[in-house]
Specification:
The chain is an alpha+beta fold. Helix content is 24%, strand content 23%. It folds into three domains: 3-75; 91-202, Immunoglobulin-like (Sandwich), CATH 2.60.40; 225-309, no CATH class. It contains seven helices and 15 strands. The strands form four sheets. It has a four-stranded mixed sheet, with no helix packed on it. Strands 2-6-4-5 form a four-stranded antiparallel sheet, with no helix packed on it. α1 (3-22) runs antiparallel to α2 (28-41) and α2 runs antiparallel to α3. The longest helix has 20 residues, at 3-22.
């Protein structure tokens, strides 16, 4: 609450009350209400309480023309209440605090998706309110920051740390940083922390190698549907999927479908075509499957595929 304006308000209420005492033809109920408001003013400690008083005084001014005309005739517009200006001085002397620990992009990774714990590490606030947003105050000098897929706007209040992504620039090792603040969730006026530096350590990417994988044979019956999963291209082949850096399977690519097949391979309900890329997530969702021939007898259906890991992204068969 602005103390100066609060005192002006109290003085204005007192002047109004004294004037009403002087005029016996004023509405006695409104006069009593105004006196009650004047007493209540002594107990107001917040801006919201003063604003509620303001609303009640305004109601009196609008609904009791006698009060307004008598006071205006005697002494101008003393009864007019000017709302106190918002004073954030006390709040700004106690901003929230964050103590970021920084992040490392390890060998074999090209980006970093942030978490709440990354952005609000060490958060504390003297008003015991939770963090409500964060702002990027300066951009990294080497890598790139995006928010929800778009370039970061400096000083904008961002609400979801998991939409913030740092993408490395180049394969070599380097360090990077950006400026960061946090906002508390004070219902009256959110307050921003001091700017801190968020440090990034990016490890070398130059030695990353592509994955390798062997062949896979699978048996199923006529008219049967066989659904493939990522395991059919990782743990089941001979030899199994292997990546020197331990990177996971990203996708497979259908390189060739035998023209001698009696059954049909499908991708999301349509016959698979050469060059079709099927991601690991799609494999695990059952998007790729085979339907055996609609006849008795033995047949062999086959296709050739390549795999790639989720970092090197080189197709290998």
């Amino acid at each position: 609450m602005n103390i100066k304006n609060g005192r002006v308000y109290t003085a204005s209420m007192m002047n109004l009350s004294n004037k009403l005492d002087r005029y016996g033809d004023a509405n006695i109920e409104n006069l009593s209400l105004l006196k009650l408001l004047y007493k209540y003013c002594d107990y107001c400690t917040t801006h919201e309480q003063l604003m509620r008083l303001d609303e009640m005084v305004n109601w009196l001014q609008i609904n009791d023309s006698l009060i307004c005309s008598e006071i205006t005739a005697q002494r101008g517009s003393d009864y007019v209440w000017i709302p106190p200006a918002v004073d954030n001085t006390a709040l700004e002397t106690n901003p929230p605090i964050i103590v970021p620990e920084g992040s490392t992009i390890t060998t074999g990774n090209i980006l970093k998706t942030f978490s709440n714990e990354d952005i609000y590490a060490g958060y504390s606030d003297s008003t015991f309110t939770a963090a409500s947003a964060f702002s990027i105050k300066s951009l990294p000098t080497t890598g790139t920051l995006t928010y929800n897929g778009a370039a970061v706007v400096l000083n904008a209040q961002l609400t979801d740390p998991t939409l913030l992504v740092y993408t490395r620039n180049g394969d070599g090792a380097y360090t990077d940083s950006f400026g960061l603040t946090a906002w508390n969730s004070n219902s009256f006026a959110a307050v921003e922390s001091a700017t801190v530096t968020y440090n990034m350590t990016i490890e070398s990417q130059t030695n990353n190698q592509p994955a390798t994988v062997g062949d896979r044979a699978q048996y199923s019956g006529n008219r049967a549907t066989t659904v493939f999963s990522s395991a059919d291209f990782t743990t089941q082949p001979i030899a199994p999927y292997f990546d020197p850096e331990g990177n996971e399977l990203d996708a497979i690519r259908i390189d060739e479908v035998s023209t001698a097949n009696a059954g049909t391979y499908f991708y999301f309900g349509a016959a698979v075509i050469e060059g079709q890329v099927i991601t690991k997530a799609e494999l695990d969702a059952g998007a790729f499957y085979h339907v055996g021939q609609d006849a008795n007898g033995i047949s062999t259906d086959s296709f050739n595929a390549s795999v790639r890991d989720n970092v090197n992204m080189t197709w290998v068969s």
